[in-house]
Design goal:
By secondary structure, this protein is an alpha+beta fold. The protein has four helices and six strands, in the order H-E-H-H-E-E-E-E-E-H.
Length: 128
């Protein structure tokens, strides 16, 4: 079992690998676009989530959730989870959590209105 799944109940999945395995049914943006995201843009990522109840695995699946880019870092991005992952006894993931990811994880890109980002995360969101 992956240590991130064991400790936090989730891990990111590579959208590039999923695309390579299912080229006709799983499309992703061009690498150039995935490498040039800017703060305020949203990236949809694939989260492998394991759900436990009373210590037993009751479900494991992939959820596609939005993360709003806060900053670029070497090799990727830091963003804020803008989706509700739900609740499970082992899941250490909540809306608003900081997520570090790379271009390989991005399966979709969008640009939410700046007003929305400021309302959700405050005026300091775009401060460096």
């Amino acid at each position: 079992m992956d240590s991130k799944i064991a400790t936090d109940g989730w891990q990111l999945i590579s959208a590039e690998e999923r695309n390579a395995a299912h080229t006709s049914t799983f499309q992703i943006p061009d690498r150039e676009k995935r490498e040039s995201l800017v703060p305020g843009e949203a990236a949809k990522l694939l989260f492998d989530i394991e759900t436990r109840e009373n210590g037993q695995v009751v479900d494991r699946g992939v959820d596609r959730m939005w993360v709003i880019v806060k900053a670029r870092i070497k090799g990727g991005y830091v963003g804020v989870l803008d989706s509700d992952p739900g609740i499970a006894e082992n899941l250490r993931l909540c809306e608003g959590d900081v997520i570090t990811f790379g271009p390989e994880h991005v399966c979709e890109i969008a640009t939410p209105p700046r007003k929305y980002v400021l309302q959700q995360y405050g005026s300091s969101f775009f401060d460096e």
